[in-house]
Amino acid sequence: xxxxxxxxxxxxxxxxxxxxxxxxxxxxxxxxxxxxxxxxxxxxxxxxxxxxxxxxxxxxxxxxxxxxxxxxxxxxxxxxxxxxxxxxxxxxxxxxxxxxxxxxxxxxxxxxxxxxxxxxxxxxxxxxxxxxxxxxxxxxxxxxxxxxxxxxxxxxxxxxxxxxxxxxxxxxxxxxxxxxxxxxxxxxxxxxxxxxxxxxxxxxxxxxxxxxxxxxxxxxxxxxxxxxxxxxxxxxxxxxxxxxxxxxxxxxxxxxxxxxxxxxxxxxxxxxxxxxxxxxxxxxxxxxxxxxxxxxxxxxxxxxxxxxxxxxxxxxxxxxxxxxxxxxxxxxxxxxxxxxxx
Length: 342
Known about the structure:
8% strand; 15 helices; two-stranded antiparallel sheet; mainly alpha; two-stranded antiparallel ribbon; elongated; 51% helix; 342 residues
């Protein structure tokens, strides 16, 4: 073999080796996983993100020392960010992650609508879990013209929300979310004979929800809620004022009150059920499913009075006559005095 031919073969072999090394490097960079993670992490792409900012986020959440595969893929096909929440799993290749981001294949968020006091707290939850501004959400919920499109007035808006867990996309629009939650509301009331049970009580779903919100505020003990609901239904049927302390707290605007005084009972408000018979204009909180079902399946009894137990267990003493109720109330007032609660 001539020296010239030997030189040519050496050059070809080196070139081939370099080419194979480059192919192997690209293969490892694109089809290998650069992420040093032991559990799934998430990348959140916002409207103002760029390919560079998404790359930085991938490095941070994926604990990646380099993203050469990202650079190669972006060079082969330009990446235009699409908003959303994207999963990065342990061992997942750079190509797999890139394809998801490129095509907008998001991972849904499990959104739990909380049973909370005040729509501002609901707005805060939505803003923290989704690509939404909580202030804008709060303003929309307070916009009577907007909410009237779904059949609610200023007082009944909370009854739209059923505290459950739903799968939605992180970048869902407020309009799409409201439509989804309205569908979930309708589905909830159509299930388990709830509409028929409400009709049997002579109440609309919104009225059941309003009563449930009071029951939820009266007791956090789920197995006691049907008893409390039954008491209030007895009062409604006898045309007695509900005299529900939680509605007074709502009217006063102080949910922290631990002792209702005669001064509080005189506050003029349609929510003050000591002054006004019947249900208040709307819910005083987002009612729980346990509270709603407690009203629909209220215990049948003859109680019309209740008072918190003197042991501060969160439960109540019930009575069917005023004399017994006064005895229960005295024990509770004495317990408050002993603890210095005013």
